[in-house]
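New to this. Comment on this protein:
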Amino acid sequence: MRLVLRRLRCLPRLSRPERSRPRRLAGALLAGLLTATGVGTVAYAAPPADAARAAVKPLAAAPQIDVPAAPMGWASWNSLASQIDYDTIKAQVDALVSSGMAEAGYEYVNIDEGWWWGTRDSEGDITVDTEQWPGGMKAIADYIHSKGLKAGIYTDAGKNGCGYFYPTPPGTPPAPGSGSEGHYEQDLRAFQEWGFDYVKVDWCGGQDEGLDQEATYRAISEANKAATAVTGRRLVLSLCEWGSGRPWNWAPGVGDLWRTSTDIIYWGQTPSATAMLSNFDQGLHPTAQHTGYYNDPDMLMVGMKGSNATLDRTHMSLWAISGAPLLAGNDLTTMTRETAGVFTNPEVIAVDQDPRGLQGVKVAEDAAGLQVYAKVLSGTGKRAVLLLNRTSAAKPITARWTDLGLTGAAASVRDLWKRASVGSHSGGYTATVPAGEAMLLTVSGTEAPGTAYQSTTGSFTVTAKTAGLKLADITYANGGTSPRTATLRVGGQYATTLALPPTGSATARRTVSVLLSLAKGTNTVTVSGGPDAISVQDLPGTGGVQAVGG
C-alpha cells in the first residue's frame, strides 16, 4: 500500500555511445591492473562426443572488451523537485563544471519532473512554458552541450505523470496529462530533436492505470528505436517502475538501466543509512547486470542536507561495489569542497566504472552483519572488495582470497579512501571496520583456474561443483560497427539479452563477462547469436547460493 501512497521516482543512466572521460579515468587508474587474458588459467573441457563438436579444437583465451559503464551525472529531483527552470538548471550545470565533477566523469545533467505541465498543441506535440524555458527545451539542452556535457529529460509511461498524483513540493498544482502514453514515439522523437541524450520514464501513471510493466516498457523501447531511425539520435533509456515488475528478469536490452526499488529519499526527508542500505540490498541482481546494462538503486544522497562525510563515503562505496549509476542529487551550487572530494575520488570512481561492467556480490558473512562483497574487475586477478559492518560496534572483518575467486597466494591490497597501499597479504586480509561503516579495497592476486567449453551449436553443458554464482567469459566476434545482441539462458531461468560490442573484424575474437547462477552438477547454458566458447569459474568459492526464479 505504501507504494501507492508515496511519491515514487527514478533515476538516470549513461549512454550507449562511448563515454570518453570515465573510460580514460578508469583506464588510467587501473592501467597496472588491466590485462587482456580472459579469466586467467583455463582448463579446457573435453568436447562432447557428437561429430559436430568433436572437430572443435581448443582456442586461446580471447582478450576482454570494454562495455559501456553506468551513467554518471546529476539529477534535479532530490533537491529541487519541480522547482526548476532554465536559470536553475544552468546554475547546476556551471557548478558541475567548476566543482571538478564534470572532469571526473559526471557528464549527464538530468532534468526531472517539473519541466512540463502536460500541455500539447493541436498536433499533439508537447508545448512548454517559454517563461520557464526561454527558447524551449532545445535551448537548455544546447547550453548543457556547450559545456561538454549530456542532457537528460523525464516523462511517464502513463497518461498522467507523477506530478499529477504527487505534486511536489506541497502546494504545487497537479499537472494532468504530463505522461507520454499515446505519444511514445512522438515524444521520444521530440526529445531527440531537441538534443537530449537520455530519458527517464517513470511509472506513476502506469501504476494508476494497471499497465503491464514489461509490455509497456518494451513498447517504449521500440518507440525509441523508431524515433532514432528518423533522427539518428538515440536516447539512453532509464526505466523507473521501482522494481514492481521484477525488471531484472526482462529489462536488459529493453532499457539501459532499470530501477530496482522505491525512492531512496522523499521530499522533506534527510538522508539515512536505513534507506541507503535498503536500496543497496534491493539493487543486487548480479545475473542481470552485464554488457552495459545496469541495476539502478536510485540517485545518490551524498552531500544533501542532513548527511555527513562518513555516510557519504559509505554511500559511494556501496554504489561503487554495485557498479551502479552515480547520479548526484544534491544542490551543486552550495556543495562543500569536502563533498566534492567524496564525489571525485578517482579510485572509487574507477571501481564503479570498471569496463568489465559487472556487479559486486556478497561472498562472505562470518557473523551476522559483518559482510564481504566482491566485484570482479577487468584483467586477471583483480577484485574490488567491500567490508561492510552493519552492527552497532566496531568489528574485524576478513576477506579470504578464495572467496573472491582467487588462489590463496599473496595479493596486494589498497585502501581506496586512504588512497594508499596496505601491503601484500597471503590467504586474505582482516581490518576493523567502525560500526555502520564500510571499507573499500582493491585486491590484486592470482586468478583461480576456470574451465573452458566450446560448442558449434551455442549449447554448453557446464558442470559446477557447488551451487551459486559463477563468473563466465563469453567469446565472440563482431565485425560490424555497432553492438550486436545475443541471448543467454541457464536451464529454465529467464533468458537475458547480451550486448556484444564490435571487435574490429569478423575474425577478431573478444570476451564479455556475465555472472551465472548455476545448480550443483550439470547445467545447460545456451547462448544464441554467435558466441562459440565460454569459460566458467567459481566466484564466491564454496558455499554459494543459487539464484532461483520466482
Remarks:
- Residues 105 and 182 are 36 Å apart (CA to CA).
- The two ends are 21 Å apart (CA to CA).
